[in-house]
Amino acid sequence: MQVVIMTGMSGAGKSTALKMMEDMGYFCMDNLPIDLMERFVDLAFQDGSRFQKVAVSIDIRSGENLESLHDVILEMKKKGLNVQLLYLDASDEVLVKRYKETRRSHPLAGGQRVEKGIELERKAMEFLRGQADFILDTSQLLTRELKLELEKIFLNGREFDNLYVTILSFGFKYGIPTDSDLVFDVRFLPNPYYVEGLRAKNGNDKEIQDFVMGQQNAGKFLDKLEDMLRFLLPNYVEEGKNQLVIAVGCTGGKHRSVTLANELYKRLKNNCTYGLKIEHRDLEKDALRGK
Questions:
Q1: Are 252 and 222 in contact (CB under 8 A)?
Q2: Could you give the percent of the chain with pLDDT greater than 70?
Q3: Long-range Cβ pairs for the range 203-206 (8 Å, 24+)
Q4: Of the residues 17, 44, 67, 258, which has the maximum number of CB atoms within 10 A of its CB?
Q5: Is 14 annotated as a binding residue?
Q6: Which residues, at least 6 apart from 29, have a Cβ–Cβ distance to it below 8 Å?
Q7: Domain ranges for the chain
Q8: Could you tell me which of 256, 248, 252 has the C-alpha nearest to residue 287?
Q9: Is 169 marked as binding a ligand?
Q10: Where in the numbering of this chain does the RapZ-like N-terminal domain appear (predicted)?
């Protein structure tokens, strides 16, 4: 019998995630008082019950009772239950943006700015983040990507490391992405832009892929990059990092960077225990305009 306790920052997507857990066959309860958690779980799993999986959401509104959650989890584990703590997080900037978009007030802000409420909540919730079995940073996740990550953890039973990796292609002419953690310059490869018939195409097209990957140094670069990343990623996890942006750049972000970012994604996807997605920031910016 499985119990998933979902907590984290307000605005990080707990309500959305709980609905997804319900679609995955979990009996769900939102904003359950911690004092009632054991009783609720006992009732859900009582003899004759059709429920085998329960998910409950708690948040900062539990106040001082949050500190008792650790003891409640221990008691449930003593009963033989498989209890896991999922913590949803997001950057302060993203949380502020979400609150402004929904025009909702932060539960701790009172009459102050949203930023102050987020600051107070992050301090109050930090100890739970440290106890979490899984941490998902939703700052850059689309709804469907969040669903895939939850399914990977709780439905498919795959091994999971608390790290979400974004492979991002970009063009140096538009600036290095501000959220980049690792930046790799692939302008050392011949540029398809100057090859007749290839300029209007991009790295998602086979002709460009064949041209770029036909360069001997492209494969060597990917081999060395993959080897380095497979060394780095588990060390980032060990140090507590949960979000990593790997930026691959060429001149316009249309040909070489897109091709190599796609190839890197394919390589890392094999036997991957991390969240992984790919984005092409500048793919459409360098479109031909009668040049």
A1: no
A2: 94
A3: 203/169, 203/254, 203/255, 203/256, 203/257, 203/258, 203/259, 203/260, 203/261, 203/262, 203/280, 203/283, 204/258, 204/262, 204/280, 204/283
A4: 258
A5: yes
A6: 40, 54, 55, 56, 57
A7: 2-155, 164-280
A8: 252
A9: no
A10: 1-155
Query: Is residue 15 annotated as involved in ligand binding?
Result: yes
Residue corresponding to tokens 């092409």: 280
Contact 164, 136 (CB under 8 A): yes
**Cα separation, 183 vs 170, whole angstroms:** 10
Q: Is the pLDDT of residue 290 over 80?
A: no
The token pair at 142 is 């689309």
The amino acid at 231 = F
- Residue 61 marked ligand-binding: yes
- Kindly report the CATH class assigned to 2-155: alpha beta
Is the model's pTM score more than 0.85?
no
- Flag whether 13 is marked binding: yes
H helical segments located in the chain: 14-23, 37-44, 69-78, 92-102, 114-131, 143-150, 206-213, 216-238, 256-269
What's the pLDDT score for residue 24? 87
Token couple for 20: 């997804």
pLDDT at 4 over 90: yes
* Chain length of the chain: 291
